[in-house]
Write a structure and sequence with these properties.
Distance between the termini: 44 Å
Strand content: 25-35%
Structural class: alpha/beta
CATH superfamily of the largest domain: Hexapeptide repeat proteins
CATH topology of the largest domain: UDP N-Acetylglucosamine Acyltransferase, domain 1
Helix content: 10-25%
CATH class of the largest domain: Mainly Beta
Number of strands: 26
Largest sheet: 10 strands, mixed
Strand order of the largest sheet: 5-8-11-14-17-20-25-26-22-23
Bound molecules: coenzyme A
Mean pLDDT: 95
Low-confidence stretches: none
Number of domains: 2
Length: 274
Amino acid sequence: MSSLETRIGQWFERIGEMTPENTEARRDVELVITKLDDGQLRVAEIAPGGDVVVHEWVRQAILLLFRLRGLERVEVGPFEFLDKLDLKHDYERRGVRVVPGASARRGSFLSPGVILMPSYVNIGAWVGSGTMVDTWATVGSCAQIGSNVHLAGGVGIGGVLEPANAVPVVIEDDAFIGSRCMVVEGARVGRGSVLGAGTILNPSIPVIDAETGEEISRGYVPDYCVAVSASRRREYPGGEFFLPCVLVIKRMEEGERHNKVALNALLRDHGVAT
Ligand SMILES: CC(C)(COP(=O)(O)OP(=O)(O)OC[C@H]1O[C@@H](n2cnc3c(N)ncnc32)[C@H](O)[C@@H]1OP(=O)(O)O)[C@@H](O)C(=O)NCCC(=O)NCCS
């Protein structure tokens, strides 16, 4: 355990007393945020065995930051903002393309080759190289997005700062998340998988194999699946209702790209789309 980690733990025990006047705590916390911003630290990552490991102390530093900073007014042309946190800077050095209307908070990490259409990336989020965050997509706090992912227009990737030890949303490399999907509360989409437009995925939603009818998991779409939004019949004393589920309609070979997704990637490579 590093001494920085130990100190953050100690400050966090006293989070109720923290104010912007506590300069010592603020120095430690700001250091963690700088390291997050440059990708030297992560809130969570996938361990070699495949489990998601959460570095709770890093998330504690983010929670402390909100206590240690006061509101500041920022004016940009005719716009006025009032917030506690800074925005990210230095995109040219980072090799990240940022279309006007996009914003990412300092303390999120964007790898080289990321494209931000007018979208939002919150603190603690980590986005891998070559990933496209399309128009009106939001990447919530601490969400972990892999490389060469496409988050299509209006996708909502949920953020998680509390409760303690809550697992953030994880989207693995090469996944395609269709327009207006909502992936929240620690849900996970495996490598190379495609989530059809408008799918809602959270840890209460059953993921069902269309071939066998079996429930594969709750809130987790395994690698190289094509999954769409569906509904399942449930009986209640009050009647029969249809609750959402996610249906795996196809399994692809490892490394395979779904043809519609491949077309999208091709258009992008040639600068035709977005
Ligand atoms: C999931 C998707 C990739 C499936 O494509 P596909 O493998 O070619 O499958 P099909 O389109 O043949 O659809 C298979 C079945 O699933 C259904 N289906 C397809 N997409 C669906 C969706 N988003 N929600 C619910 N059902 C869907 C189809 O109606 C079809 O049903 P049928 O067998 O009764 O006809 C595609 O439909 C999709 O949603 N793409 C994302 C589009 C998008 O968001 N683009 C972003 C713009 S950049």
